[in-house]
Automatic annotation (TrEMBL):
SUPFAM superfamilies found in the cross-reference section: Radical SAM enzymes
Gene3D superfamilies in UniProt: Aldolase class I
Pfam families: Radical_SAM
Protein name: Radical SAM superfamily protein
Domain Radical SAM core: start-end pairs: 221-449
Species this protein is from: Pseudodesulfovibrio hydrargyri
CDD domains, per database record: Radical_SAM (cd01335)
Keyword field contains Nucleotide-binding: no
PROSITE patterns per UniProt: RADICAL_SAM (PS51918)
């Protein structure tokens, strides 16, 4: 019995103009020891597809991490039931780890849609693409991107292939050696990148309709369980462990009207959960955030808002917390890093600011279960006793502590320090940048320590 055909991947043409080139965007599989969907969307790729469509291209999306086709039950695709507010597990297939990671005593998997079904979907794409744009979210997830690029090369050998995103931008030398694709380093809206893209696909260079990359082609998801909100790109701060400035050198903010239009459009499609993707959500809130929050509070919509990227605690004034609560903020994530307030690696936060922010959240009506606090774990040279103290400190407030495992990222100010502290060749092989191996913790990952930390997070002693 022949198995059901994969659904057709639709092309989305530009409105009001003759379609130009066909550009297929692909978000590849995650390859890792663990992965969990916390409102994941490839924001950079969606920005590129929106810009290209506005400039005249027809675009299509294959997201290997999204159950876009689960609505067709006869496909035989099993996707875990969404968890709280649309988050949840990915389907996975255990695979052999890459040779550099074979020493790890952990299972390694490919997360997302089944590989053979992805190949079928791509092979059925008609008409074929004139160009393929593949993104990378984490540097050490590049095996999935290289795999999908090889598949595309076999299917459409004459179509130019582009590799963009974090890996291509921050690990360019490694990417150039390991893939037969044009590297798209940095934002597409940059004038050099924009011109180069159109020249390489042999089309006339159109004028850009969006030079900020803040409009996203979210409509390419047929039946989304959640959506994302992007009111800014980049970050005005320069935390030592972060590479945001290397990825987006300029901090750009949207206007409130454009953000509200995007939320309204997704809400009318049935979406109720929205995750803010901004690195600096509470900076210059008059620019767009206040009008959006106030507009939501006064509207006929009742969205649930989430902040998976930590908010800066020092900005959590009484007014800020009340606006967030009134607009529907449901999942609160804060960045504490450490309770050693005199020796911090991020934006300066005083003990008084931390206490005030925590108090203001509770006074605004947020429940303790709503509030999670990220504590950095595994920094080079870090005293893990301080991490344990921070966990206990957060639990004393009634909040839920979460360990934010340190990822040594090329382009971040701390990367050289990480390279000196790690026994692994972080510069030469991005696979060793994986925070699952605890790359800068003496002795690396081990199950006994992982269990002990899990017990501590839940208020137990191992």
């Amino acid at each position: 019995m022949a198995r059901p055909a994969f659904p057709h991947i639709p092309w989305s043409a530009p409105q009001g103009r003759e379609p130009g080139p066909r550009v297929l965007g692909i978000n590849p599989w995650i390859t890792d020891f663990a992965a969990f969907n916390v409102w994941s969307r490839p924001a950079g790729l969606l920005a590129c597809l929106d810009m290209l469509r506005s400039a005249g291209a027809s675009v299509a999306l294959l997201d290997c991490l999204a159950p876009t086709w689960e609505a067709a039950p006869d496909l035989g695709l099993k996707w875990p039931k969404p968890g709280k507010y649309g988050t949840g597990h990915y389907p996975k297939e255990e695979i052999e780890p890459p040779a550099p990671l074979a020493f790890m005593d952990r299972r390694y998997s490919r997360y997302g849609l089944p590989r053979d079904r992805v190949i079928e979907a791509l092979a059925a794409l008609d008409p074929a693409p004139d160009a393929v744009l593949v993104t990378t979210i984490m540097t050490y997830w590049y095996p999935g991107a290289l795999d999908i690029l090889d598949i595309c090369a076999e299917l459409w050998p004459d179509a130019p292939r582009f590799l963009g995103g974090t890996y291509a931008t921050l690990c360019g030398d490694h990417a150039a050696r390991h893939t037969d694709a044009h590297l798209q380093q940095g934002p597409l809206e940059g004038p050099e990148n924009w011109s180069r893209f159109w020249e390489l696909i042999d089309f006339d260079i159109p004028q850009q309709a969006d030079k900020d990359g803040l409009s996203l082609a979210l409509d390419l998801y047929a039946d989304p369980a959640y959506s994302i909100v992007l009111g800014s790109r980049g970050c005005p701060f320069a935390c030592e462990y972060c590479a945001s400035n290397a990825l987006y050198p300029r901090f750009r903010q949207s206007g409130a009207e454009a953000v509200m239009v995007g939320i309204r459009s997704e809400y009318e499609r049935g979406v109720r959960d929205f995750a803010f993707y901004d690195d600096a959500l509470l900076v210059n809130p008059d620019r767009w955030l206040w009008p959006v929050l106030d507009g939501l509070a006064a509207s006929d919509m009742a969205p649930r808002l989430h902040t998976p990227n930590a908010m800066h605690v020092r900005h959590l004034t009484v007014d800020v917390c009340e606006r967030l609560k009134a607009a529907g903020l449901t999942t609160v994530r804060l960045g504490l890093e450490t309770t050693d307030f005199d020796h911090r690696h991020d934006v300066k936060l005083t003990r008084e600011q931390w206490k005030a922010g925590a108090r203001n959240l509770l006074n605004a009506g947020f429940n303790l279960d709503d509030i999670g606090v990220y504590i950095l774990f595994g920094l080079p040279g870090q005293d893990l006793g301080n991490v344990e103290e921070a966990v206990q400190h957060v639990r004393a407030y009634g909040f839920r502590p979460h360990l934010a495992h340190y990822t040594p990222i090329p382009g971040s100010p701390m990367f050289e320090t990480a390279c000196a502290a790690s026994p692994y060749p972080l510069k030469d092989e991005p696979l060793f940048q994986n925070n699952s191996i605890w790359p800068c913790v003496p002795g690396g990952f081990n199950w006994d320590e992982a269990k002990r930390w899990k017990l501590l997070l839940h208020g137990e002693r191992g």
